[in-house]
Amino acid sequence: MNYYKVSIDMNIENDIVCHYNNDYGIEQNTMVSGKHFNDWDGRMEFYFNKEEGSVWTDYLANDKGWFLVSNKLKEILETLDTDIEFFEVNIREGGTSSYEMYYIANIVRVVDALCLEISDYFETKIEGFDTIYTVSKYGIYKDKVEASDIFKLGNGQEIPLFCSEKFKQLVEDNNLTGLAFTKIKSM
Q1: Residue 175 burial (CB < 10 Å; 0-12/13-18/19+)?
Q2: pLDDT tens digits for 80-134?
Q3: Domain ranges of the chain
Q4: Which of 4, 66, 112, 128 is least surrounded by Cβ atoms within 10 Å, i.e. has the fewest?
């Protein structure tokens, strides 16, 4: 099976980019660190300016870097072998009262599958901390992915999302938008 790094599709023109006005104390890394979040109260909203973009995609870019997904993409994610939390969030145009409902998909499946042997990276050693790996091209151990269809890597690499060929195919078969896939090495 092939595996892919998941990112925002940068080739879509005029797509919506969401911004927040108040994060209610929710730190940026909260929904990208691969950890459960128990303090969601539903107050947070994202906004966009239609002059900057007005095309709705199934994965919306946002200034928090969170996996912000449509209901259609949420339904696909719910069929996968992984561990995900979903939090409802309103997306509003400017200060209008109308909104679209999206979901923050907090991927909490973290696997220790990073294979430095086939990755392109450099190390930074900081006194008092572990070695930090800055990876430009990822490689993984297939047998350590634990049959996950969408996941994060451990070892300080929790921010990027990765997926199986199964998830990529579901996205393509269902014409979901806003996602880009970069094949990664595996062994």
Answers
A1: exposed
A2: 989 999 999 999 998 788 899 999 999 999 999 999 999 999 999 888 877 888 9
A3: 12-107, 110-186
A4: 128
